[in-house]
Amino acid sequence: MSTVDAASAKASQARRNYSFLFALTLLGLLVLLWVVLAIATPNFMSDKNISNLLRQGSMIAILAVGQTFVIITAGIDLSVGAVVGFTTVIIALLINAGVPVWLSILITLLVGLGIGLFHGFGITKMGLPPFIITLATLTSLRGIGLLITNGSTISIDNDDFTAFATKDFLGIPSLFWMVILVAVPAYIFLNHTRWGRYLFAVGSNPESARLSGVRVNGVIYLAYALSSVFAAFVGVLLATRIGIGNATQAEGWELQAIASTVIGGSSLFGAVGSVHGPLIGAFILATINNGANLLNVNSFWQRIITGGLIIVIVYFDQLRRRGR
Amino acid sequence: MSATHFATPEAAPLASGDIILELRDLEKRYGPVLALKPASLAFRRGEIHAIVGENGAGKSTLIKLLTGVIPRTSGDIRWNGKSVSLATPQEAIDHGINAVHQEVMLCRHLSVAANIFLGDETVKFGLLQKRDMVRAAQAILDDMGFQLPAAAQLDSLTIGQQQLVATARAAKRGTKFLIFDEPTAYLTRQEAAQLFTLIRRLKAEGVTIVYISHRMEEIFELADRVSVLRDGQMVGTRDIAATDDNELVALMINRTIEQIYHKEQIPFGETLIETRHLSGKGFSDVSLSIRRGEIVGLYGLIGAGRSEFALSLFGRNPKTSGEILWKGKPVSITSERKAIDLGIALAPESRRDQGLNLNLPIGLNLNLPIYERLTKGFVISAGEEARRADKQIRDLSIKTPSRRSLASSMSGGNQQKIVIGKWLNHGADLFIFDEPTVGVDVGTKAEIYRLFAALLKEGAGILLISSYLPEVYELADTLHVFRSGRLVGSNPFHGASHEEVLAEAIGV
Predict the structure, then answer these.
(1) How sure is the predictor about B7, in pLDDT bands with cuts at 50, 70 and 90?
(2) Dihedrals φ, ψ of A17, to 5°?
(3) Are the C-beta atoms of B352 and B344 separated by less than 8 Å?
(4) What range does the domain containing B367 cover?
(5) Could you tell me if B160 and B52 lie in one domain?
(6) Thinking of the domain A21-323, which architecture would CATH place it in?
(7) Percentage of chain B modeled with pLDDT above 70
(8) N or C: less crowded end of chain A, CB within 10 Å?
């Protein structure tokens, strides 16, 4: 037995080093991309481009953190892109109706909460697979948004609101500050509260969690509620950035969010994930898109590169996990 | 495809000493656990050879080794006198070794005919000949005397009927060595009779049958010889005519009582829990009570309803009728949380599926029930979390380098300590231990039994569920026997012999 335990000693040490190394490797990849682009293109390091890159990456980064909570429970949330599009419509209508901005934001976030709770209900009470219930809201939320607006785009008549996205604070774009505003509490929540532990426990083995007194259904409600509220928050940010409400916005963002999460080291089988991983993942994807634009790479290639990157990173991650 | 789908007549019975399959010192280890001690046994061509033993005695390990599902650790298997590797299920099938498992392993959504022909379909010009297959399958079923429709979808049949389909499928493949694992568990009397007719006919055609069952009367009706397994060891083979069920039961039970059963008599305190005519999914009309300082044993075969009863006490499965009294007051335990808040702890039957979060750290597993207590304000007190985990690791001498190691990296015995440790961390009045020593080495077993004694001393009560008779027999103050979801016997301490208890559980 002692040989077994000696081996496991090494394994546990290696595992901790490994998760640290993985984060460092991702960060290294991001820095490498930046260095290469700074050398290869004259415009990459310009203030304008860097702020633009940070703005582009910020919204996917917030979506990816919410998505990570769901993925840790071994679920998936396909609806987040549709929630973003839908909530741009909600906030546009509210602000144009003269509702104070703070109240409009609050109501929009509550709409997000409602969508998340509906997902929780579908999964725990109706027994629907997460893939199915969130796929259903993905398509129907776009439909509801188009129905409300009659398919048109709503311009937001509030210059203070629409100016927010272009502002800087301490030289950093306001949208990037929003990432920090979300990521710090998210980190504390995931790593230093019991609910964070429960997310991992449910993703690892829901039956064991249940028999240890964890309210599994409550945890599932929580994960999907957080994901949808984060998406509604991104909807607000997108509305300030583009100044309109339109239900077809943010097409495909759910896949970018999932890709960021997976690149950031989460396992779609659950119980593995972090807050910093999806953040770095989101900015790697944003950098690739930005760099490809600057290098005049055909935008079709960007999609192909993103796909290839997902395969390579997750494959190496799998190899390392299996090897340990 | 006419009626000649059984083994060819050329292979029919030869001399009775003709050996088809021989095991020489066959051994299987899982890490430190010896699942099958070196076993030697020779199966004769055309005999019906029964294998009996308690749960966990090594029967399923033996089946898996013979059907190529798991590799052996050492030893030799000889098929028709030649050494074979049996490294994959396909290799076993190619030799003509098949098994009909207790759990039906067929495709539920396909027709009976499609299942019988699965992997061996009749094809013409690249297209399936469904009508031909249904006709041929029907001929096979009729020939075997099974009244089953070949065109029906499999899951429209009862589990018993599905088992007959599985048998037909194995027989059709020209099998020479057919293993039945508890084949009659779900069969009606009539279906069982049809199955026995088929088994005798296969025997007449020279097929060797290995028949595993807890039902003594079936073994004496069918078998030519019987072998007994106990604690992973082959303890004897008898001609059926030269033995009786008393001898077999005696062989199945280890008479030498090991020193590991640590037991102190502690005066009983108040009654913690009492069930009155409690019924639920898988069990009915169970009345028993557990006092402080008392170990109540539940003995019975796996699937007898013991675990379902335990899960119901713990709020996992709701009761359908009857009453539960907790410290004298009627309670309704509708959720696990409620049971835990009352002071009930459960170490469930399956470590992997119910007891552990395998791919998470040991510390998280140990603290999972108490995170509410560890939370100060909004966040978890990291120091307290570490202290509580390390205390259990030390107290239970869980052999791990760190609380951060994954539970999956531990041996079975250490994993079981984690499952128990999480409830010591939490504290409880009533501890339910469901098969606490399965797959656990002797040293850890002794540690677990000492832990029981310590819990009793602190005033807890224990419900000990086990299919390992010596364990419940030696440890329990009150012993109840479960059979088919009911209490069939309740004996005060040492009031009945091992043989009587086992006979009651099997229903001899």
Answers:
(1) very low
(2) -60, -40
(3) no
(4) 359-423
(5) yes
(6) Orthogonal Bundle (1.10)
(7) 90
(8) C
